[in-house]
């Protein structure tokens, strides 16, 4: 695979933020689930995060970045951003809103800056992996660097795992 740079990688370089690029093979236009991505790039699923785009009751959009095996807790998410309720946006609205497609949505470099929340579990990781803005491309960076660039807050927004 030839080394291709995404806009997210260019942004990180422009801001002089250290990162490690990861690529994985995939079929054209096929989104791969996060656990599979973690395996393909040789990372623990707890260090690989997915980007979810939501809409609050007040019609504002929000981005939540959570571990790939976790589920977004809509009540905790709403509380984290001061909304009455939160719901996932329909997939057809993702590209017009963010500029990204499903499976390649990055918390960095969106068309519009949306309020972003990183799950507090990210703080426990030395580095986390997020989408580089294209299916097949990931970037690994420190959660603090990601939070700084995305102007993100940390909050517990995932469902507690069933014991």
Automatic annotation (TrEMBL):
Its EC number is 4.2.-.-. Residues 36-147 form the YbaK/aminoacyl-tRNA synthetase-associated domain. Keywords: Lyase, Protein biosynthesis. It is an enzyme of class 4 (lyase). Coiled coil: none annotated. Belongs to the prolyl-tRNA editing family. YbaK/EbsC subfamily. This is Cys-tRNA(Pro)/Cys-tRNA(Cys) deacylase. The gene is ybaK.
